[in-house]
Amino acid sequence: MLQVRTCVGCRQLGNRADLVRIVKFESNLTIDSSKSLPGRGCWIHSKKSCLQTAFERASLARALRVNLNLQDLNHLKEQAEKMFEN
Fold first, then answer.
1. Domains (range + CATH), the chain
2. E strand or H helix at 13
3. Long-range pairs for 12-18 at CB < 8 Å and ≥24 separation?
4. What is the band of 86 on the pLDDT scale with cuts at 50, 70, 90?
5. Which residues contact 45 (CB under 8 A, 6 or more apart)?
6. Is residue 1 pLDDT above 60, yes or no?
7. Three-state DSSP class for 34?
8. Closest CA relative to residue 83, chosen from 51, 35, 56, 59
9. pLDDT tens for residues 23-37?
10. Which strands sit side by side in the sheet containing 28-32, from one edge to the other?
């Protein structure tokens, strides 16, 4: 059975295998490439447009139930630039 998750950016459903997990781990916001880090996580498509929408709507902070500062968001953006599609 496929595991379905919701993208925090576009709010569309997707298979767990097709989405990227973002987690607040050891006080850092990071992309969980192994999809197994402990802590509260959220899921997003590997598209820059989904990440940008999540930033604009503040849905990352809401999904992770934390206050995110500019440093956290910039760090995540740098990681995403290397991994995400347009």
1. 4-83 (3.30.1230.10)
2. strand 13-15
3. 12/45, 14/43, 14/45, 16/43, 18/45
4. low
5. 7, 9, 10, 12, 14, 18, 19, 20
6. yes
7. coil
8. 51
9. 988 878 889 989 999
10. 28-32, 19-25, 41-45
* Residue carrying the six token digits 């767990």: 16
In contact, 84 and 47? CB cutoff 8 Å: yes
Q: What is the CA radius of gyration of the chain?
A: 12
Q: pLDDT tens digit string along 26-65?
A: 878 889 989 999 989 999 999 999 999 999 999 999 999 9
Whether the CB-CB separation of 33 and 47 falls below 8 Å is answered with: no
* pLDDT mean across residues, the chain: 90
